[in-house]
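$ ./design --mode recover --in tokens.txt
reading tokens...
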């Protein structure tokens, strides 16, 4: 097979050849610090980020070196972007000892990381008047970025956190008519029961409602099934699995789907 169309290849040339609308990003680390016990913030600067455009919730594919000498890609939501200054920030959830978590906690200032982006094809539905974002701690940046981008109508968030001290509340745009945020903690990562319980008590009959589910693979499937059973239209549900309990993400950064 021609390497330019090899869907399993994760080197930069192959990714640029097969992915539309992405750019090569040489990202110099400017800082890496612990924001909460279970959240590491990594900041970058790069000339490649000057004029860089990304929609709320989109991510970058980072090339991660592993202790074994192998390299894998991990995808992280762009939590902050300044295209004028050429700076960017990502949030890395700390729940174990995965490749991305290890890298983020040992990242060195000045190290240049190979990135590709922006990725992600599930934008906020501009035609909806009611928005409900449901997610776990691993998808916190995507949930907050997308929720804060809603400028009209109603917006709500339901997010689970490992500990009360990990809770970061959304900042909603002043133009929304109503807003609500529910933080569930302490929650063991991968346990979606609290999200499902909270959802069971929500009114989902509002007109022009759109639901966004960003979380662990099994949680995403369970929440989507619950929404469908409550009468939410399939086209009004956007889902994105960020990781899968008991399994490492594939070299291209996605959790196994089978």
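writing sequence...
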């Amino acid at each position: 097979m021609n390497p330019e169309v090899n869907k399993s290849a994760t080197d930069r040339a192959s990714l640029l050849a097969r992915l539309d609308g992405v750019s090569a990003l040489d990202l110099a680390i400017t800082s890496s610090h612990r924001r909460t016990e279970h959240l590491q913030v990594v900041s970058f600067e790069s000339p490649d980020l000057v004029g860089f455009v990304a929609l709320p919730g989109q991510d970058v594919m980072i090339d991660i070196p592993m202790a074994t000498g192998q390299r894998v890609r991990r995808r992280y939501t762009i939590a902050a972007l300044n295209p004028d200054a050429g700076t960017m920030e990502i949030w890395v959830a700390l729940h174990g000892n995965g490749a991305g978590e290890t890298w983020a906690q040992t990242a060195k200032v000045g190290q240049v990381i190979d990135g590709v982006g922006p990725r992600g094809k599930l934008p906020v539905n501009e035609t909806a008047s009611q928005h409900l974002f449901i997610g776990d701690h691993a998808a916190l940046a995507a949930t907050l970025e997308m929720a804060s981008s809603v400028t009209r109508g109603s917006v709500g968030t339901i997010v689970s956190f490992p500990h009360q001290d990990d809770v970061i509340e959304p900042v909603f745009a002043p133009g929304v008519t109503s807003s609500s945020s529910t933080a569930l903690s302490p929650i063991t990562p991968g346990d979606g029961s609290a999200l499902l319980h909270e959802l069971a008590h929500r009114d989902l009959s509002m007109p022009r409602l759109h639901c966004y589910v960003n979380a662990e693979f099994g949680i995403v499937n369970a929440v989507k099934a619950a929404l469908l059973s409550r009468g939410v239209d399939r086209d009004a549900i956007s889902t994105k699995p960020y990781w899968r309990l008991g399994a490492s993400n594939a070299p291209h950064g996605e959790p196994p789907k089978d």
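exit 0
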